[in-house]
């Protein structure tokens, strides 16, 4: 079964190995400007997303705004708006509520993501194209998807002992050891969904 460990030693070793691979790996092409594929009301805004806010029949309040690193945008009249863990639709409703507090009557807000912040994951070790890959903004991918985007496992890959390192919100590093052969069917496919900044290391088999 996959295991989770929180420590500094193994994480430091893994990141050192990742850095070594990074100097020699060929990265997959990465889009520098991730463009939206349409309005995604359930998409949660992230730092560096570029959003366009339109207020119906109030063009002076329309703005294009970049989400700051502290998950805020600054809108006319109402100032800083906290968008952390809020979807596009959540933010529309929240901004509308703020404008009703002494500014507008029944405001209609439309928010569109103009550019998505780039999400990347590093895949190293026994894969065919090690390096950095870009996660499409509208996609949720798991560990196997990330390996596939890195060219798939090499013929020497140890598929039963794959390492996943993730930086948690509190700054700690979580180290997962995953048997990927258990992730190919059923609900297991949804385990280990990849997040921005994850590091995957595939060791070679020992003969």
What's the quick description here?
The protein is an alpha+beta fold.
Layout of secondary structure:
Blueprint: E1 3-6, H1 9-24, E2 50-55, E3 63-66, E4 72-75, E5 79-82, H2 88-99, E6 109-115, E7 119-125, E8 131-135, H3 143-149, E9 162-167, E10 173-178, E11 199-202
Describe the structure.
This protein is α+β, with helices and mostly antiparallel strands. It folds into two domains: 3-32 and 118-202, Outer membrane lipoprotein wza fold like; 50-115, wza like fold (2-Layer Sandwich). 17% of the residues lie in helices and 28% in strands. The protein has three helices and eleven strands; from the N terminus they run E-H-E-E-E-E-H-E-E-E-H-E-E-E. The chain has helices at residues 9-24, 88-99, 143-149, and strands at 3-6, 50-55, 63-66, 72-75, 79-82, 109-115, 119-125, 131-135, 162-167, 173-178, 199-202. Strands 1-10-9-11-7-8 form a six-stranded mixed sheet, with helices on both faces. Strands 3-2-6 form a three-stranded antiparallel sheet, covered by helices on one side. The radius of gyration is 21 Å and the shape is elongated.
């Amino acid at each position: 079964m996959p295991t989770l460990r929180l420590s500094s030693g193994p994480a430091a070793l893994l990141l050192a190995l990742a850095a070594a691979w990074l100097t020699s790996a060929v990265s997959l092409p990465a889009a520098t400007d991730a463009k939206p594929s349409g309005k995604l009301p359930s998409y949660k805004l992230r730092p560096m997303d570029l959003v366009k806010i339109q207020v119906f029949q109030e063009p002076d309040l329309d703005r294009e705004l970049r989400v700051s690193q502290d998950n805020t945008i600054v809108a006319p009249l109402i100032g800083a708006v906290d968008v952390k863990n809020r979807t596009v639709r959540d933010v529309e409703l929240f901004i509308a509520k703020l404008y009703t507090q002494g500014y507008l009557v029944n405001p209609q807000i439309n928010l569109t993501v103009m550019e998505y912040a780039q999400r990347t994951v590093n895949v190293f070790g026994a894969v065919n194209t090690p390096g950095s890959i870009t996660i499409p903004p509208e996609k949720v991918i798991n560990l196997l998807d990330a390996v596939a985007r890195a060219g798939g496992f090499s013929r020497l890959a140890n598929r039963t002992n794959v390492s996943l390192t993730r930086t948690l919100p509190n700054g700690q590093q979580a180290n997962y050891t995953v048997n990927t052969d258990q992730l190919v069917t059923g609900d297991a496919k949804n385990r280990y969904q990849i997040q921005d900044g994850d590091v995957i290391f595939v060791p070679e088999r020992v003969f």
